Amino acid sequence: MKGPSTRGWLMLAGALWLGGIGTGVVALARYSMTPGVAPVTAATWPEGTRLTRGSGRPVLVMLAHPKCTCTRASLAELAEVMAHVGGRAEAFVLFLRPEGLEDGWEQGELWRTAASIPGVTVLSDPDGEEAKRFGATTSGHVVLYGADGRLRFSGGITVARGHVGDSPGREALERVLREDGEGGGTPVYGCALEERRER
Length: 199
Hints:
about 35% helix, Thioredoxin-like_sf, globular, alpha/beta, RedB protein, six-stranded mixed beta sheet, Glutaredoxin
């Protein structure tokens, strides 16, 4: 039979274990709700980009990292946007391919998911040159430029890292596309485009 001292140690160990779990849950929640670095987005359609604005419609661009698990939620939200207001804008998803990596490295599961969204064109972004032109620093960053080439929306369309569901960003983007207005900006939740360089 265990004595009082053994029972006390077990209670202490249990309390520490539960405390550790609680600390981990809080840290995970804090991480998921921490946006990426605030971007400095080009106010007008950036010079030098290889994307074209030829249809007289607004152009939507998402900059993404092909190995960032948070990007899956951003693509799910983009699919919702396109389902609700598809046809009102040309849409591109550009996947980063870091310098020195072979062609096709970026064409994995997330690439195929993006390519399956009706109305979306998927392209590679070697060395993140397009992300730099558009001012994106975080995977899942969406920019929308009007037919006049002026920035109408810049930000994320998820409410947290990897979270699928209604968000102020998605609502603002859809409103701009429906009303041809201004949407401002929202925080972007995802992996840093420059930090994730897995081979």
